[in-house]
């Protein structure tokens, strides 16, 4: 299963750089989900370096590409904020892995996407002179953004879709492999806990 997880994460990282070849793929990449799923399925914490380093490197490359193509200065504060978001995604993944629930798998993916959205757009609001440093300006950064660009909320919609799509695909493939190889899965662990809770009650009835 570990090999399959590595392959899936590498494919997702390759997908992350597609916008440098075709801009129609921009903002559909599963930013938070790559780190999140890596932490959920990699029991060896040393392997968390793969999704984290991969995200940091691809993010640096993609944003350098945008800066070169559109002639703006690459802001290191934005890069640091995204790195923090990736690290938080790892933390969410570890937290979900200790609960072993499909519901928490979905919740963790949603939380990761929301965290990335709020952190990056709040930083844009704070550092961009275009936005008024008021609650109204912050709300504009989160929803409308700059008038010459598509609304910010559209970018959130795309990244949320990308995170949920990748999490579902990643978990689905990993659980299918686990079932095929008769290995433990998140769903199996949840069922075992449920059965364990029912056994004492059944024993009391028999007595």
TrEMBL record:
Compositionally skewed regions (Acidic residues) per UniProt: 185-195
Keyword terms of this UniProt record: Membrane, Transmembrane, Transmembrane helix
Residue ranges crossing the lipid bilayer per the database entry: 24-42, 49-67, 79-96, 103-120, 160-178
Nucleus as UniProt keyword: no
InterPro entries: DUF6580
Region annotation (Disordered) ranges: 184-207
Residue ranges, compositional bias (Basic and acidic residues): 196-207
Source species, domain of life: Bacteria
Stated name of the protein: Uncharacterized protein
């Amino acid at each position: 299963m570990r090999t399959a997880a590595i392959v899936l994460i590498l494919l997702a990282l390759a997908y992350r750089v597609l916008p440098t070849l075709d801009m129609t793929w921009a903002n559909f990449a599963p930013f938070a989900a790559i780190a999140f799923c890596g932490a959920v399925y990699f029991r060896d914490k040393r392997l968390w370096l793969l999704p984290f380093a991969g995200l940091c490197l691809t993010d640096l490359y993609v944003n350098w590409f945008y800066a070169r193509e559109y002639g703006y200065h690459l802001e290191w504060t934005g890069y640091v904020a995204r790195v923090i978001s990736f690290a938080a995604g790892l933390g969410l993944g570890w937290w979900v892995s200790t609960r072993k629930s499909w519901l928490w798998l979905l919740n963790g993916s949603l939380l990761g996407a929301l965290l990335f959205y709020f952190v990056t757009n709040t930083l844009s609001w704070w550092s961009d002179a275009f936005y008024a440093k008021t609650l109204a300006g912050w709300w504009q950064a989160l929803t409308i953004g700059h008038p010459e660009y598509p609304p910010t909320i559209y970018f959130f919609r795309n990244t949320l879709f990308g995170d949920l799509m990748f999490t579902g695909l990643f978990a689905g493939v990993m659980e299918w492999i686990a079932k095929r190889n008769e290995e433990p899965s998140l769903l199996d662990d949840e069922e075992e806990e449920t059965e364990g809770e029912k056994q004492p009650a059944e024993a009391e009835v028999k007595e």
